[in-house]
NADP-dependent oxidoreductase domain-containing protein
Amino acid sequence: MPQDITMNGSAFINHLDDKDLVVRPRTRTGSYSVSRKPALSTVTESSKTLSSSVPTNNSSAQHPAASTNGYTGKLPATFVPGYSDEATVRRLRYRPLGTTGLEVSALAIGGGGLERFYGSLDENNAVQSIREGIRRGLNYVHTAPWYGGGKSEALIGKALALVPRRAYYIATKAGRYAGSVEEMFDFSAKRVVESFEESLTRLGLSYVDIIQVHDLEFAPNLDIIINETLPALEKLRLAGKVRFIGITGYQPKTLLEVVQRSSVKIHTIHCFCRYGMYNNDLLDIVPELRERGVGVVNAAPLGLGLLSKNGPEDWHPANDSLKIACRAAVAYAEEQGEDLEKIILKFCYNSNDIDTTVASMVCIERPALVHMNIDTVIEPMTDKEKNLVDDVKGQFFRPLEKTHWEGDPVARYWEAIREEEALKSINHARPLTDAVMTRNAYAMFTEPDEVIMYRKSTI
């Protein structure tokens, strides 16, 4: 292929199996400039046709707050006079989180990438960003012990120490942890209870609003989740240490199966990278979740960097077809004078299909990110932005055969487990290093807000 060629319409799809391409649309001609960029990993498949474009107010049967799209101008229960920013709170959208009785902001604070700030010079900015997000009305905070081996929870705990407890709802997780590959997942009743108590200590709280089973598709089988993990969490709920129980993961149908089979009431599901611009598979399970009164939490609206200006990291599990299409979509939006990151955030925020979208609010490069995000979503989507959503989906993502990486992370995890067992069997027993885990079982690290990876210079 020449170094720089022009392809009309969606013809660039024919070249998606050619790795290391840079795709940039040419607005005036409707064509695409394609050139090579060194070092992009190769895979060749591509995803599912997306239905639905811009969220509207026409799905009132799907959600209790749909008639107003979550916006009423009223103050939520988390509003604290003298602390909360009333002007901003009145402009934010709040929706019922299933049948929990919690009314959550349609945009939520994600803790997936916070561990990088712990103990650093930027820690104060991170703490202030969390506090400012809550003060301005983002009342749902999400974290987990897996994020930085507890550093995310510890940092959030520092931030919450000076925040009125009634001003926020917090959700954490149990079941996934930092450490060797063998220690990464433990869904036993004993470990999840221990983990929960450790989380309370790091957060500096006596209870949390939601405890969730973390990435349950990695369990040896779902029977463990249903018969051991969830009953253990239910005991915590009955003891008054947690108000509600949730489950999280990447695979929508697996989440629905657990909801269907569990004798313990599941109050929320949390799914990442399966609703937004390039993939809407989460919508397949929403109708039944609504019928059962289960809250729906969306996460990673930018696809773990796929639709960010800087693009994804090398470890991202998406196939090359999807990566190239995402690069082209971001470039196309820029040519139109629009910021696709902001449009995606607005798109998810305005959707009646989900209750809230978890996104990162702290960034070293953008210290005012939390304010930028809030200021972005409180402004209505313009007609130009709505049309751009339709254009991007139609031009870049509907032609793809595959827009997800379901199954790959789990397969690679169990491959790594077998590899470690083989090492032990030949008397070379040792925990897999972070470098080995990253090389052989990458996709284990896929996470809702950001990916937490322990990179070694030896890789």
About this structure: Residues 1-62, 432-445, 447-459 have pLDDT under 50 and may be disordered. The chain has 13 helices and 13 strands.
